[in-house]
Structures are given as structure tokens and as C-alpha cells.
Amino acid sequence: MGCSGCGTATGGKPNGCKSNGGCSSGGCNRMNAYDWLRNLPIADLDSACKVIEVSFSQGTRKDFFRNTTLQHFEKGELIAVEGVSGFDVGEVSLTGEIVRLQMKKRGVKEDNPEMKKVLRRATDRDIEVRNQNKAREPEAVIRSRAIAKQLRLDMKISQVEMQADGRKATFFYIADGRVDFRELIKVYASEFKVKVEMRQIGARQEAGKVGGIGSCGRELCCSTWLTDFKSVNTAAARYQNLSINQTKLSGQCGRLKCCLNYELDTYLDALQHFPENCDVLQVAKGNAFLIKKDIFKNLMWYTLPDSNKQYPLSLERVRKIKSLNQQGTRPEDLEPVDLVSSKAVEKEPEMVELVGQISLRTLEKAEKKKKQQQREKSQPGRNQGQRGQGQQGQGQQGQGNKGQQQGQQNKQQGNQPRPQQRSQQNNPNRNQQGQRPNQPGRQQGGNQNRNQQGGSNQQRPDNPNQGEDKK
User: Fold this and answer.
1) Which of 44, 157, 342, 437 could serve as a FRET partner for 20 with CA atoms 20 to 30 Å apart?
2) CA 366/CA 9 separation, integer angstroms
3) Which of 16, 34, 102 is nearest to 65 (CA)?
4) Residues 197-211: what's their mean pLDDT?
5) How far is C-alpha 59 from the geometric centre of its chain's CA atoms?
């Protein structure tokens, strides 16, 4: 939430929020209020507001101080103010007439005699001492938590704020109930050598001091502008038709989100037009139960016991059914509202061809064809060799297929019934059919088929026992 002018120094003004009241963006200091009365001319200097608002620890704590000096302070300046037994250094957050409105909002009177005063502008020595004491705060938090745990106190130290001069320390703690910290104060005073002040805060105040990013993507409201924490309950979620999910409805503080109250008044005003006592409607199919109310479309959703379907009804239809039920009659149907929109469905724009006749597919085909032609031109010998080998392989494959067909024919001829067995010598025609000078493979295949079928009476010399087994 930083301003765009924080990085440059224009007109002799310092960088950052110290722009003499011209920034007011609230990015570099928490809980800032925009000074919309800054350019208002002052008619009477005596009636001008003599109180200024000072913030400490980057806006986590603010207080009002009376300006009794004749000096004029601008927003963003560091000043020294009265503290507890010493002084404190803070940053001017508001000046002028807007301070009176802030005092009225917080219930602080301008003529309060107990209001502390502004001492002077902060010197280099004041700023150096403040930085040294502020550097002690992280270590003080760790040590104070360990001491509280040793004393077995049911509390949590959230933050420790040191005064600029180091004479006082404020311990902010969280506890569910009342804590007896009388012994704890003595230990803290002897350990840190300061005057101890204990302040109990809630979980919302702790989240505001720590800060962070909410589920909406923005900085937490409690750390930027929210000062009054109102009570939030689950009824606000029910009025807004939100699911009662503790993880979604809870903020970083573990409590219900403060933003549940932002739109609650709008929902309550809109729900006044809805009929009351219409949680159950009686129809012929059974009792219809109310599920939710849609204030944006002025619809009430009901369900029937025989199905899980939800039926949207208009407010007029609900009033009519309720009046019929009071008369003792039940309508046949709920007559739900048809939520199909009459708006024409917009078609997605298709690809427009700039040339008119060229598409992506044709371009891809032309590109592939061009690449193939380039490959053929770059390797002509290799392509021809591959073609020759392919033709030779096809020829050999054709011859093998032809031999297989002839062998099958011979096998079929051997399986046919014969009146008498003939020897291979007395059948010259078969030898002429099975033998060809250019195809030895076919002749060999035919002879093997005949030997297996028992067509030959000759015995092979390498197997002399074959004839004896047959006998």
C-alpha cells in the first residue's frame, strides 16, 4: 500500500512518507487517517486546534498530545513527547482540524488537563537512543515468554514495547481468564531494569499488531483502518446464505471475520420483502422445505422429500401457496421458475483466413511435401539402392510363395486315395512335374512330401531301422 512518490524526493522533500502531509496513503504507517481538511484555511489562529496525534511503533499505538510550543509540526516528523519518568519519540500522524474529529470519535476531550505535552523536535541523540532501545524488544519477547512459562502462568506475551529512553516497557499479553501476575512484574522489573506495565489484549488486537494478508488478498482490516471491534456471530453468515464452515469463516486471529458484518445490514434490508413463516410448504407430493433465499434474484429454493432436486420459487408463488395451505388446500405442483436464460449464446470467433483459400492443413501438407523433395534430391543414390533392394526382396519373396503353393498342391495329390502304390521309377510324369531346372527348392519340397505320404518304396540308407518299424 505504498505510495508512488515514496522513492523520489521532489521539491526538497525527504523520501518516504515524510512528504510534509502530501502522502497520506497509509502505506508506510498503520491506521492512518486521510487529512481531507489539510487545505482548509484557518480564519482564527486562537481557535485552531492545539492538539496533534502521534503514532508509535509504526502506528500500532496512537495518542493525543497538546502542542504548547510555538513550533508548527508537519505530518511525518519525529517529535519528543512526555513519557513515564522520561520522554518518548513518536511520529506526527495528524495535525489541524481533523484531529478534533478523531478526538470526538474516541471520546477524548480537548481541554483534558491530564493530556501530555509535546516537548520538542526529536534530535539525533533522541533518535539514536530510541533505536538502541527498540533493538531490545525481540530479545525481551523471548525472555519474557520463558519467564511466564517458568512461573506456570496461563498467558502469552504477544509484544513488548520499549519507551524511547528505555525507562519503561509495556508488555502486551493474551489470556483466556484473569492472571495473577504480581510475582511476574517483580521478575520482569529485576530482569529488564525497567518500569513494567502489563496490558491485556484480545486475539483481534494481536492480529492487528502482527499484521498480514487476508483471504481477500488485501492487508488485514484490523492492521490498516479498523479500530473498533464489534462482535461477530454465526447468525451473520446464515443471513448471507454462507456455509457454516469454521475454517473459511475464521480469520488469522482464529475468530470470525470482521467483514461478515460489512454487508449484513444490506442483507437484512433485502430480507424484509421476503415472506415470513414459509420454511415448509404443503403440496400434493408432500412437504417442501426451504433451503436458501436468493436476495439478488428474489427467489426461494425448496426441496421435496422424493428427490434431491432444488426448485426455485418466486416470492408471489410462495405467498400464494402459503395462503392456499392456510385455507386447507394443497396445490398440485410447486410451479418453479425456469432459470434458463433467454440470452443468445455467443459463439466463439473462428479462425479467419486472411488470404481466403489457405488453411493451416494445406500449409502443413505443402511444407511436408517440400521437405520430402529436398531429402530425395540430397540423397539420390541412397534412394535408388533402397529401391533396388526392395525389388530384389520382393522377387525372392514371390519365388518362396510360389514354391510353397506348389508344395501344397503336391501334398493334396499325395493325400488322394490310390488303387495301387506306385514307385517313383514307374511314374515319370510326376518327376517331370516336380522337377524344374531353375527351381530346385520346388523339387526338394515335392520329394519330401511324397516320402512322408508313403509314395516311395525306397529306404533311406541313414535310417536302416525304418523298414523294420513299419513291418
Assistant:
1) 44
2) 62
3) 102
4) 89
5) 30
Q: What is the pLDDT of residues 8-30, one digit of tens each?
A: 444 444 455 444 444 444 445 56
Which CATH architecture group holds 275-326?
Answer: Roll (2.30)
Cell of 164: 524511547
Q: Are 321 and 331 in contact (CB under 8 A)?
A: yes
Strands (E), 202-358: 280-283, 286-294, 299-303, 310-314
Look at residue 12 in the predicted model and tell me its pLDDT: 47
Q: What is the mean pLDDT of residues 93-117?
A: 88
Q: Please, are residues 203 and 254 in contact by the beta-carbon 8 Å criterion?
A: yes
pTM (two decimals):
0.58
Q: Report long-range pairs for 274-281 (Cβ below 8 Å, ≥24 apart).
A: 274/298, 274/300, 274/315, 275/315, 275/318, 275/319, 275/322, 277/322, 278/318, 278/322, 281/318, 281/321, 281/322, 281/325, 281/334
Q: CA 118 to CA 121: how far, in whole Å?
A: 9
Match 494481536 to its residue by C-alpha cell: 206
Q: How many angstroms separate the CA atoms of 181 and 151, rounded?
A: 9
**DSSP string of 346-388, one letter each residue:** PPPPPPPPSSSS--HHHHHHHHHHHHHHHHHHH-HHHHHHHHH
Say if residues 113 and 68 touch (Cβ distance below 8 Å): no
| Strand, helix or coil for residue 60 | coil
Indicate where the chain has its CATH 2.30.30 domain(s).
275-326
Phi first, then psi, for residue 349 (nearest 5°) are: -65, 130
| Closest of 169, 165, 167 to residue 140, by C-alpha | 169
CB neighbourhood size of 75 (10 A):
24
pLDDT at residue 38, as a whole number: 76
Contacts of 239-248 with C-beta under 8 Å, sequence gap 24+, read 239/264, 239/267, 239/268, 239/271, 240/264, 240/267, 241/292, 241/293, 241/294
**Residue 469: band (very low, low, confident or very high) from pLDDT cuts 50, 70, 90:** very low
| Topology (CATH) of 132-208 | GMP Synthetase; Chain A, domain 3 (3.30.300)
Q: 236-288: per-residue pLDDT in tens?
A: 998 888 888 888 899 988 899 999 999 999 999 988 889 988 889 999 888 99
Which pLDDT value is given to residue 408? 55
From first CA to last CA, the distance across the chain in angstroms is 112
Determine the pLDDT at residue 286. Answer: 87
Distance, in Å, from the CA atom of 244 to the CA atom of 235, rounded to the nearest integer, reads 10
